[in-house]
Amino acid sequence: MRWPGTQRMRLAAALLGVASGCGPGEVSPPSLHTQKVLLQGARPAGLSLADIARVDLTISGPGIVSPITSALGRGTSNAWIGTVTGIPAGPARLFEAAASDSAGAVVYQGQTVSDVPAGSNVQLVLLLQDPPPPPDSGAPQISSVEVSPGQVAPSASVDVRVVASSAPGDSLSYAWAAQCPGALGDGQFTDANAASTRWSAPGEQPVTCVFSVRVTGSGGSSVTVYVTVQVSS
Description:
Helix content: under 10%
Number of strands: 15
Strand order of the largest sheet: 1-7-4-3-2-5-6
């Protein structure tokens, strides 16, 4: 599956813009000027989200003498979020996330690279996609998920769209949902069962919301994809 689009899903880094202070590796509530680094990956087949007990973040790069470490908190069932202050500014900072089970065994690892501007906090979001369905499952194929714009002001709205296909003659149904950890509500979709719809953001900021869209074929097979949107003025 691939996800081209306006705010297009890709298994890489996504940046926004941001600032503040504490000690290296300390986690603080997101500020109004926090840069977001998005690390996305596919959850390995056979790994249950319930198996992940802890996610640790390590930050290294030129000029960082000792790697900065911090734990990420679980924001939603498949997203872990943490804001780290005091990262030395500079290019090519390496962000590595390691997920462990209750016994301490590492069950998932991912990494991405991002520059860190001077005076910035960084919010790291680890977002794990579901494993792709088997080729012979008959599940629909999602080719793109688009969120436009990818950052929205509090109480404003964004347009969302999913493009999917299936076997000839198969009809598709859609189900959108949103989770906004830290906000009083999760916003609202104009029509949560349409391929293209509009979402109104909650009034709080800054908040990282996780959208899910499930596409189901007439035979009952389905596939779900997740994408994030930043609520910030």
